[in-house]
Amino acid sequence: MAMLEQGILNGLSSAGIYILVALGLTLVLSIVNIVQLAHGEFYMIGSYCMYYLMERLGLNFFLSMVIATLFVAGLGVAVERFGFRPLKGDPDRSMIVSIGLMLAFQNVMLAIAGGISKSIRGPFSGVVQFSGITISWDRLIIVLVTVLLVAALFLLISTTKTGTAMRAISQDRVAASLQGVSINRISATAMCLGCGLAAIAGAVVGPIFAISPTMGVTPLMKGIGVIILGGLGSLPGAVFGGLIIGMIDGIVPLYTSSYAASVISFAMVILILLVRPQGILGHESKM
Questions:
Q1: Secondary structure letter of residue 118 according to DSSP
Q2: Among 170, 175, 247, 249, which has the minimal tally of Cβ within 10 Å of its Cβ?
Q3: Residues 239-279 pLDDT 10s
Q4: Cα separation, 49 vs 262, whole angstroms
Q5: What is the C-alpha separation between 32 and 16, in angstroms, rounded?
Q6: How far is the C-alpha of 231 from the C-alpha of 285, rounded, in Å?
Q7: Concatenated DSSP letters for 147-177?
Q8: What is the rounded CA–CA span in Å between residue 25 and residue 227?
Q9: Which sign, positive or negative, has the C-alpha torsion 98, 102, 107, 112?
Q10: What is the structure's pLDDT at 69?
């Protein structure tokens, strides 16, 4: 039983990363109306910003995370304004642009940082123990940050004018525009929030995993799987799907291997596509 509980704790930290990435993907898909295939690169840039702010400028972990998030969020706004907005929501051309951005960001970072993996020092050392279960501070921080950000995002969506406008656009862009909602402003806001969430995910994962120019590929694939599993356009679905895949990644390797966990995760996604294409919470829980 202790091993299972340990797996659940590990799964929660993995789920936190997937949830943050998936929430960003969902916001961009619902509001900007594109599948942002370069989303993993914003995650990667967040990690590298953390590395350079801490190792080169000597800033502490949390201040570096704030600065990295603001930088990447601003980069996301610039990409939406000059990369996606001129395409007016054309899904085919937008996908080509996002693939180009993915390759460009990877190669630019490879030229800047080189091919040698890097790591970030966590804000606290050691582990936390309770009831015979151990979790490192690095993983605990991921869980706590995810809980706070998910709560803040749902509060923003449900209680603010910006959140109301986002929900209106996600349900009917034309009707929202006729009611005076600025599609361009809300799209920029959604891109800002989505890229910011990816940057925070990259920032908090740095003390656990190696940082490299291609590190965003796996979170992107997992994030896409999460939103398919939970339901396209559903923020609660992104949280629910992230928890499921995170638990699989945390528990299954204890008994088999990490490869088996990946197979099971994507097999579930394929099964959902076959039996319930809208996802588990699709059409039931709107943004």
A1: B
A2: 175
A3: 999 999 999 998 888 888 788 888 998 898 898 888 888 88
A4: 29
A5: 24
A6: 9
A7: HHHHHHHHHHHHHSHHHHHHHHHHH-HHHHH
A8: 8
A9: positive
A10: 97
